[in-house]
Amino acid sequence: MDTLEKALKNGREIQKHRHTIHRNPEIGFYLPETCDYVMKCLEEMGIEHKLCEGKIDEEIRAKFSKAGFPDMEYYTGVVATIGKGKPCIMLRAEMDALPVNEPRGVVNFSSKNPGKMHACGHDAHTAMLISAAKLLKNIETELNGTVKLLFQPGEECGCGADMMIRHGVLEEPHVDAAFSLHVVPNQRGGLVTYTPGTMTAAMETFEVNILGKGGHSSLPHLCIDPLVICNQLYTTLNLLATREIDPRETVTLTVGKISGGSAANIIPDSAKLSVGCRTFKKEVTEHMQRRIPEVIEHTVKMWKGKYETTHFFTPLTYANPKLCGELIPYMKEVVGEENVEICPSVSGSDDFGYISQQVPGMLVWFGTGDETQPALHNPNMQIDEKWLPYGTAILVNVATRWLAQSTKNGRLNREYI
């Protein structure tokens, strides 16, 4: 029986895992119930695993609290290993949900937690990896090395993968390559798409709290107007992409939020502005990382204001071209030659970028619907679950076939190992 047949036999079990996780969504870095469920499944399979738990750095904790996330003192993830020895390939799935209200009646296993929903498919990712763990455990003695499984928190925060790396998930044993797939509900079911090289954009977010001096609108000379400063910042920041970046490069910069004030005849004490920037090349990213804070600093001070800035960053995801070339045939064995295609880079972001900075990695998009379906992050998003066993089979086939090829003739034969 081949890998896909085995995965298809576990179809209902994959659905059960997904429905359980979907009903009980958790957001952010601290996912105790989801981690408990994953570890219970791994325990029942006899798979070696451990909880990746730690205290969140106080600066990071304060930053996310200020941005509106619930106060999170700890982070929780799960790491497991199947097999032994070198080489080691890591399969990663995210577990966190989004702060979205799920409408009733769309599915019969909707969220029990108001204001929280798995609207990015992470419930499916976790379910597919749990099922992959079962299939891999059944052939553990045949593995030519180690498969490490990472169940990761905080992807929607943009840096959960970084926390896991700092916790040490890329070591003991050392990870030689990493793979992850992401469901896409508005992509044809069974279609795998990927981009060798830069797969997703880097993302910068600056939350700026501008502090002025309020007063009566008839006496503006006695005030420091934070809304005027916001207006100046809006204009100046938007000039960065058009006047300082080579037009052949791709940059998106959006001042997506400005808030402040309460009445037409009152100059407020403070105002807030949020700016987001996405880039596809390291040099462009570094330029914008330097220039956005400079523009904020000089513009605010020019109008005698003060400010506080909260900065968030997610690096671009780089799909190692050599690794892509090796793994693509193993995916074609599952979904067919005609169902694997190269696609353009996407302007969305994924914190798998932290992993791909450290080890050769590959992220792919996996279609679970069609072009008429609502996209990711939409509260009406749905997944055609008949495709989930195919995702499980891809994870298993990629891991087992890569390990086998990497140790062909009894030796490691990969340049990046």
Report on the architecture of this protein:
The chain is built from 11 helices and 16 strands. It has 417 residues and is of the alpha/beta class. The strands form 4 sheets. Strands 1-2-4-3-5-16-6-15 form an 8-stranded mixed β-sheet, with helices on both faces. Strand 3, helix 5 and strand 4 form a beta-alpha-beta unit. Helix 1 (3-9) runs antiparallel to helix 11 (388-406) and helix 2 (11-23) packs across helix 5 (122-138). The longest helix has 21 residues, at 282-302. It is elongated, with a radius of gyration of 23 Å. It starts with a helix and ends in an 11-residue tail after the last helix. The mean pLDDT is 94.
Give the strand order, joined by hyphens, for the main sheet: 1-2-4-3-5-16-6-15
Give the rounded overall mean pLDDT: 94
The helicity comes to 25-40%
Strand content: 25-35%
* Topology pattern, helix = H, strand = E: HHHEHEEHEHEEEEEHEEEHEEHEHEH
Total helices: the number is 11
Going by helix content, strand content and strand pairing, the class is: alpha/beta
In the predicted model, the low-confidence regions spanning at least 5 consecutive residues are none
Radius of gyration: 23 Å
Describe this protein with a few key phrases.
417 residues, alpha/beta, 8-stranded mixed sheet, 4-stranded antiparallel sheet, 11 helices, 16 strands
What is the secondary structure topology, with strand pairs?
Blueprint: H1 3-9, H2 11-23, H3 32-45, E1 48-55, H4 58-66, E2 74-83, E3 88-94, H5 122-138, E4 146-152, H6 160-167, E5 177-188, E6 192-194, E7 197-200, E8 202-211, E9 215-216, H7 226-243, E10 251-260, E11 266-267, E12 270-279, H8 282-302, E13 306-314, E14 317-319, H9 321-335, E15 340-342, H10 352-358, E16 361-369, H11 388-406
Parallel strand pairs: 3-4, 3-5, 5-16, 6-15
Antiparallel strand pairs: 1-2, 2-4, 6-16, 7-14, 8-12, 8-13, 9-11, 10-12
